[in-house]
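Help wanted!
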Amino acid sequence: MTNRCILQMALLLCFCTVALSRNYNLLRSQLRSSNSACQNLLRQLNGTYCREDRMNFEVPEEIEQPQQLQKEDAVLVIYEMLRQTLGIFRRNFASTGWNETIVERLRAEVHLQMDRLETNVDEITEKENFTWENTPVPHVRKYYARIVQYLKAKKYSRCAWTTVQAEILRNFSFLTGLLDYLQN
Amino acid sequence: MLLSQNALAIRPLNLYPVVFISLTFGILHALSDSPDESCISFNMTLRNFQSILSWELKNRSIVPTHYTLSYTVMSKPAGETVVEDCINITRSFCDLTDVWESMSETYLLTVVGFRGNTVLVSCWDKVFVALDMSLEPPEFEIVGFISHIDVIVKFPPVIPKMLVGKNLQTYLSLVIEEKSGSIVNLHRPKIDGNTTGNFTYVIDKLIPNTNYCVSVYFEPKNLGKIHRSPLKCTRLQPGQESESSESVKIGGIITLFLIAAVFISTIITLKRIGYICLRHDYPKVLNFYNLSAWVFPELPPLEAVAIVEVIHINRKKKVWDYEYGDESDSDNEAVPRASAGGYTMHGLTGLCPLASTSSASLENCGNPDAEEPDLPEPGVESEPLMTPGPGPCQSECTDGDYERRGNRLQDRFSEEDNSSTEGSEDRIVFNVDLNSVFVRVQDDDDAEVPPMLSCLPEEAVDLEDPNEMETSLLVASGEGTQPPFPNPSVECLWPEDAPSDESDTSESDVDIGDGYITR
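Answered by r_m:
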């Protein structure tokens, strides 16, 4: 009886591992495609860059050069970046003259990526020893808080928005690198 | 003179910085004059792993003689940086391979066009490298073998800063496209930041003596246009004989295996459905080991067969007195009786009359008209019994005088009840199957027990069953007709003198003591 239970557990573990690996491979492929779509949409938002309003938002190391990042941390960082990006583009960008449809499509694409990550994020955060403090997510939140603070300080001006647009475009490029951590 | 010589010696040394500074101030001056963003278009290309930036002025009427390129980034408030290799260049492109370091940066590029010392145009635009860089295919070579092709992709000995490390595999997805006729296969070899020099990828499992074409390209991240390399084709060498013979061997083994599988499955199927029966212990008749015995088989011993002789004894049957008038009242009285010879006549008292009242039984007996020729005429009672064929059982059933004959039968049983040695009134009905052939070995013992056969049913007569009714009525008809010589051919009313082997030899068959007959 004990042997049968051990065998069943082993088989279950194997199946779960295979299913999870396939899940991550598929997830990575989907996110790559969606990420490229987001970058293209962001590029379509026309606007003249203002050199005088450039700002160094100090991208966290976990985003720009993720050398020692675990797969679970990468999932959390990607999800947090998408969530913060969605929050930024829900703010007032009336001064930019951007096409509302393009912005809406951008938000939808970001939301789609978040939905795809939802299950994986739940699996990670529902672990017993999980605490947000042990993840790079707080740094990411501070980084995006600086961006929002900048927009507020500049009163959502056109130049401020173009600076943020360039920064978000840069973040999507970092996301491309982060997605590589989702492979098996 | 000396002063002039010193001046000539110093002049080249100090001239370059002066020119550089003046150009820088000139560019800054031009930028301060707010360069036009829409007057130029940039094109970023990765060609042989080199980042080449080219530009084209939108206003073609302005033709500068030389250009100066500078850039800055959007991610921080940094100053303008002049590209040293792109100062006062006469060409409209610049190699930025060793200048730019990030693929994720948005660069603000400024080109100042000069004619002589005069600034003709100052234009700027932004370039996001990860999306705007066009990926041209790398150089490669192919080497064809019998069943595989080696694709050798030429990477630079030193990877550019922009692609060093993880960026090479993140931003460059190498794809090798293999074509054979209309079949196209894509191969995606994994490359990393340490991939330098010749990178060899093997396309295996190909068909010998077939033409294959290979193309290589980098898959763009921005879903943009794919720049494929020109096809390089090769025809694989024909396969060697050893390989063909090996394939033939494998094919032969597979064929043999299939044949064996089919044979075994056929045998199993035939055995299961019963067409063949494989046994290990053969019966003796199939034992051919003893050949002599098989050739000269032993004759079976003669068996002593008792001679059975059928003796027709014409014995005058006991004649009963039929008095219809008086004894017709006892209709429901079923009395077992024994015949004079010791055989028990089954008491059918009350059965036939009851059956006669059942219209269903009469209907089931068939068409009376069709049976009419076989029916015994009431007036001529002995003739039907003498004729072979359908017995009186059937004819009786269809007879219109069925009821009357039933009454006769009852009367007769009532009479015989008086003469029966076994008769007792508490045993009214018992069933004996006398529908059997009684064969008697020639013996004199049966003289006292004459076989008297009747077609009385073994079981109680079912009033609803016309067949049993017929059998019962046969007796009635036979008795009623009072045949002078019971005909053995009559199947229901067996002749009294019919020899019965069983009835005589077996005492257990006939138990006259208590009135039951046990067989």
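OP: Thanks! One thing I noticed: The two ends of chain B are 167 Å apart (CA to CA).
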